[in-house]
Amino acid sequence: MESRTKLNLQAGLASLLVASTLVGLKLWAMGETGALSIAASLADSAMDLMMSLGAMAAIFYAARPADDDHAFGHSSAEDIAALGQAVFILISAAVIAVAAVLRLLSDDPAPLQSEARGMAVMGVSILLTLALVWWQGRIARATGSKVVAADRLHYLGDLVPNIGAIVSLFAASRLGLAQIDSVVALGAAAMLAIGALRIGRGAFDALMDRQADPELLRGIHTLADNWPGVRGFHDLKSRTAGSRVFINLHIELDGDLTLREAHEIGAGLKRTILLAYPQADVIIHKDVAR
Predict the structure, then answer these.
(1) Whether residue 7 has pLDDT greater than 80
(2) Same structural domain for residues 84 and 198?
(3) How many Cα atoms occupy the beta-carbon half-sphere of 242 within 13 Å?
(4) Same domain, 233 and 185
(5) Domain assignment of residue 112, given as a range
(6) 27 and 155, same structural domain?
(7) Confidence class for position 71, pLDDT limits 50, 70, 90
């Protein structure tokens, strides 16, 4: 558990550093070019920075052990943070879309300038984002953190708008098609909205105690069904909270077993489930087989 927390914190720190760098670069590039696509990307990176700060706080809080008031721990903080991220991303997408439409409808849109500098900045942004997405992907797979996964999805979505910004700047400088800048910004807003809805749905499902991934439940079903001494099982229930999965399972044992023998069967099954699914928190109840 401690190692997963350290990995999540490393991902959060990397996200903070990259977001801070991108905000500075894009702020300069926007001032140089006046491009709406870069302004949209800047707003997105500024939102990334704010949400990364919130994600770090959520990871710290979620890592706290269970206490008297929170018997199942604090991992739901990750879902709350992910839901907050989704809301902020939707707001950002709406602001970008409105600005793009207004520029498209304008009779005298502001001209773009210093396109080469803007393209250079966006190129650096793409390289930094690719490196961060790769690192976050490794950590999200290792820890199962929804916060890291949500942050990674957002940065992954940033790649297309960044590439689009380069295309729009190139079109403006070489072809005189400044309006492409607004079209690219609209596409970026749509992608942000779709990603936000996906993130929000996953976080909402977890907060509403939706059951765990069916694949995980099938795996536990197979382990319990084939475990020596287990004659049957029932009431397999689950819920997710952040990167944790809570499992409750009733196993049916021979009524003539000693207490020690029954305990060893249940403990062995629990250890095997935890080895297969280290993010799980497992409670096994022992019933007499009928």
Answers:
(1) no
(2) yes
(3) 27
(4) no
(5) 2-207
(6) yes
(7) very low
Task: Give the tokens for residue 150.
Answer: 């949500």
d(CA 113, CA 32): 7
Cα R_g (the chain), whole angstroms: 24
CB within 8 A of 170, min separation 6: which ones?
115, 119
What's the pTM?
A: 0.55
Would you place residue 178 in the very low, low, confident or very high pLDDT band (cuts 50, 70, 90)? low
Q: Which CATH number goes with the domain that contains 252?
A: 3.30.70.1350
- Which residue in 203, 283, 200, 197 sits closest to 241, CA to CA? 203
Structure tokens at 24: 């500075």
CATH code of the domain containing 197 = 1.20.1510.10
